Each structure stands twice: as structure tokens, then as C-alpha cells.
């Protein structure tokens, strides 16, 4: 299952969950605004708190069941055991990304890549996006820290870098078109297995 599939499934699950919470809030608003003379309903405090408990259990259950389905969560939990195939040290300063090589930087499918991004002044975002503007991943880049992210690419194509954090008016123009190009070879192993 690709990260796109996982994200679509999570969108559906969380949309259903959000509608459940909205219905809960709507019911609460209806109940407290209802005139006392017509206050006769099956929606008792017992039902209210039971529904609240069910929502809490569903929310916690969704997080427990899906935490390992989101690709970057598994990487984050295991990153101290994973040796990357390549490391890209990227600097951000004066609203500009300084990449270690001339773009596009070519990456092979299946390679484990470590992005180490350092900011020398402000807090920025480091997001990688597909040409159709869907996000592959992003992380916050805090000054004074090594901001690291491991990733294994499974899809071929060109990707651009965009700052995903507000860093002043100039931050909106922080984009590196065709920053990375991923090339897939059928013989390349796609499993993490490290």
C-alpha cells in the first residue's frame, strides 16, 4: 500500500470521525437551546456521556490502529536503526534553500534517503511535492537544530521543494522547482527490510 492509498483511507476514516464529533456538538447545541416546556427527549445525560465515551474510544482506537500505517511514523520509530543510502545536507538561510548538488538531484527508487535540513536564521518548512501539488512529506525546520527526515521513494517522477511554514512574506516564494528526480528500475528492491 502506498502512502497515497494510506492517506486516502485516513481521510475517509477521519472524515467520518469528524462528522461524528460535529453531530455531537450539534446535538449539544440543540439541547441547551431547546425551550424548557418542550424539553422531553430520549437524549438524556446518560446517552450524552455514553456517546462521548464512544467517540473518545473510537478516536483513541483510530490512532492506535493507524499509527503504523502512516509511512513516516514507522520511519520515525525506527530511524535510529536505519542506515541511509544517501544523506542530503540542506541549508536554509535568507529565505533560500541551499541544496548540496545541482538540481535535479537524482535518487533511485528504493534508496533510503536522509534529509538533514538546517536553518541559519528563521523557522522554515521543508516540504516535498509532486507536480500535481500533492505533498509527499514535510517537516518543520527549526534554527539551531538538525532537522532530519528519512524517506524511501517508491514512485518515479520529479518533485519540488516548498517551504511549508510561514516565515514572512518572502516565505511564500521559497520554492525549488524540479529539486529531486526519482528514477525507478524494475530490479530495485522496494521493501524497507532494514
TrEMBL record:
Transmembrane segments: 12-30, 50-70
InterPro entries with a match to the protein in the record: Cupredoxin (IPR008972)
Domain of life: Bacteria
Keywords: Membrane, Transmembrane, Transmembrane helix
Keyword Transmembrane helix on entry: yes
Protein name: Cytochrome C oxidase subunit II
Protein source organism: Persephonella atlantica
Amino acid at each position: 500500500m502506498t502512502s497515497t492509498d494510506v492517506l486516502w483511507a485516513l481521510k475517509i476514516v477521519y472524515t467520518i470521525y469528524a462528522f461524528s464529533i460535529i453531530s455531537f456538538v450539534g446535538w449539544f447545541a440543540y439541547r441547551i437551546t431547546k425551550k424548557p416546556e418542550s424539553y422531553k427527549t430520549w437524549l438524556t445525560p446518560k446517552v450524552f456521556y455514553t456517546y462521548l465515551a464512544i467517540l473518545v474510544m473510537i478516536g483513541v482506537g483510530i490512532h492506535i490502529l493507524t499509527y503504523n500505517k502512516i509511512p513516516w511514523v514507522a520511519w520515525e520509530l525506527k530511524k535510529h536503526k536505519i542506515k541511509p543510502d544517501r544523506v542530503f545536507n540542506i541549508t536554509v538561510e535568507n529565505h533560500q534553500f541551499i541544496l548540496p548538488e545541482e538540481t535535479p538531484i537524482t535518487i533511485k527508487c528504493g534508496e533510503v534517503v536522509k534529509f538533514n535540513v538546517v536553518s541559519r536564521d528563521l523557522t522554515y518548512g521543508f516540504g516535498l511535492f509532486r507536480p500535481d501539488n500533492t505533498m509527499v512529506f514535510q517537516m518543520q525546520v527549526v534554527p539551531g537544530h538538525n532537522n532530519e527526515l528519512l524517506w524511501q521513494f517508491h514512485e518515479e517522477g520529479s518533485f519540488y521543494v516548498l517551504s511549508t511554514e510561514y516565515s514572512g512574506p518572502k516565505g511564500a516564494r521559497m520554492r525549488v522547482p524540479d529539486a529531486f528526480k526519482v528514477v525507478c528500475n524494475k530490479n530495485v528492491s522496494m521493501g524497507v527490510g532494514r
